[in-house]
Amino acid sequence: MSLRVAVADDAAALSVLHNASFREGWTRDDFTTWLARSEAICLVAEQAGEVVAFGLALASGSDAELLTIASVPALRGQGFGRRIMQGLQEEAASRGLDRWILEVARTNLPALGLYKSEGFVEIGVRKDYYPGEAGRVDALVMARSVAPAGGQGRA
Fold first, then answer.
1. What is the DSSP pairing of strand 63-71 with strand 99-105?
2. In sequence order, which residues have a C-beta less than 8 Å from that of residue 92 and are 6 or more positions away?
3. The CA-based dihedral angle spanning residues 66, 72, 75, 80, taken in that order and rounded to the nearest 10 degrees
4. For residue 12, what is the enclosing H or E element?
5. Any idea which residues carry the catalytic annotation?
6. What mean pLDDT is reported for the chain?
7. Which fold has domain 2-145?
8. β-strands 2-5, 63-71 pairing
9. Where are the domains of the chain?
């Protein structure tokens, strides 16, 4: 697996992965717009020349806001999300950002496990934020510090 910065030509592949991962996936045009923003931090993981995972964050003031991480469904649980998160961490640190912040569905247990293992802690709840199979689902708001290069941050 190799990790690289996403480029505009990745928008279609990112949309396919996002739609395979989330109930309300984003379009190619959505990703084209995100990737054109100077504050975007987007990394892709490739395996055998194919995009198999990605993560998208935004630099917002002194915060790094994680917007989404997704991977090929058949390859989940193989560490792609963790490697993407670590790469985003390195980029956030190099930009001098102070804090990571994200929202995650209370029911997304694999993502919660990743974020907790990476030092994120819950700082709030957004009630009924996401659509779910059986109605609306709360979003947990989580945060941690952006560690200096080579270190892991804590909220």
1. parallel
2. 41, 57, 59, 64, 100, 146
3. -30
4. helix 11-21
5. 103, 115
6. 91
7. Aminopeptidase (3.40.630)
8. unpaired
9. 2-145
Distance CA 59, CA 37 (A): 10
Over residues 42-56, the pLDDT tens digits come to 999 999 989 999 999
pTM beyond 0.70: yes
Listed residue (17, 152, 25) closest to 86, CA to CA: 152
The residue count for the chain = 155
Residue with tokens 């689902």: 137
**Element of type H or E holding 114:** helix 109-117
The label of the residue with tokens 């991977």 reads 71
What residues have CB less than 8 Å from 123, skipping those under 6 apart? 101, 141, 142, 143, 155
